[in-house]
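Final report, results section. Input specification for complex C-07:
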Amino acid sequence: MELKAFTQLILPTQGRLFRLAKLFLRNREEAEDTLQEVLMKLWSHRQQLESYQNVEAFAVQMTRNLCLDKLKSKEWQSRAGEANWEEVEEQKVSPYQQVELSDSAALMRKLIDELPETAKLILHLRDVEEYSFEEIEQVTGMNVNHIRVVLSRARKEVRDKFLKIQAYESGH
Amino acid sequence: MNLDIEQLIEKYYEGETTLEEEQELRAFFLSENVPAHLENEAKQFRYFGQTRKEQPSAGVSYRTVTQLSKRSKVRSLNSWGLRIAASLTLLVVGFGAGIWYTQHEGGLSEENSHVAEMKKTLQAPEQTSASERILAVNQSYELAQGDEEITQILLNTMNFDENVNVRLAACQALQRFENEQIVRDGLIQSLKIQTDPSVQLALIEALVLMKEKRAASEMLRLAQNQKVLEIVRLKAEEGVFHLKQEKQTNNT
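Structure output:
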């Protein structure tokens, strides 16, 4: 596979791969590094890529695995203790709204982050990346009914926890 | 409208909405007129919408692509170049090792087998002919330097071989190692043991050449021994004379 064909095939997915990596690693730079690693890996597998029906699903799987490996690594665990990886989003809203929005965004991210790995992945793929259930099936290897159950539970859990915290805060 | 939305929200949380319905929800929550009682629900959708906009910095893909293009060039060259280089290296190393091995192994084993053969021949005199033993003794000339075992074997041969010629050959071979104390002592000892005139003569000559003064008394004894052949007595006398002269010149 030529480089041009490769970039045409893979580069459209790089935003998704990046967001997925960021979902797991919660850090922009790390996510970019991971994205690069994934692209390199895909390139070294480029002969096989042509035989895959769904290259994106393959790339997503690869990204997820790489992220999970990183999270498991000792280096990562020792680093995560020291630094706070949360970052402030850039937003084009009024300052007041911005504070509120970024607060709730940070909270939302924290809540999603607390979800189990599979739930987090499915919620992300569906609600952020707008994957169809078939596509999620290809990535996770789970059947549609199971995916629905996990998705529903994840959505509710995030909402319930969010409402709880909101109610708690407004009570003061 | 609101009712629809609330139903959709319900469906959404059950995981029953289709992608289109979810898009509808998203559009609704991102619009300006979200009713107050749904404001909290909107947060989730806004968060997802926001997240979706995140992109890696433009530099990343550019860097990656340039890296890939560099890599692909270097790589293809590398893989072939490396393969050829590796196979060539292997061949050369293999040949080199083979040549080295045969040379060294051959050289070593040749020398070793000589020594072993020599030892075997000399240590079993009853199974070998005199000429074979002489040949074996002469093989010691091929050695750069004698070791203790070989000089011992040669000494034994000189003293105890049944054949005069073998004893003579051993005596001559031993003269090469005249610097070794064990050889000098052995030759002096041998003077007492030897009964054959020719070996006695050879020994006297060798000891005189070595200027071995300790042999003088033994030679004197030979010179005075009436059982010894006359020519040997004369030779011994001459030897004693030479050694004493040597002593005197040394002393003055």
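DSSP finds eleven helices and no strands in chain B. Chain B has a mean pLDDT of 81. This concludes the modelling results for the funded period.
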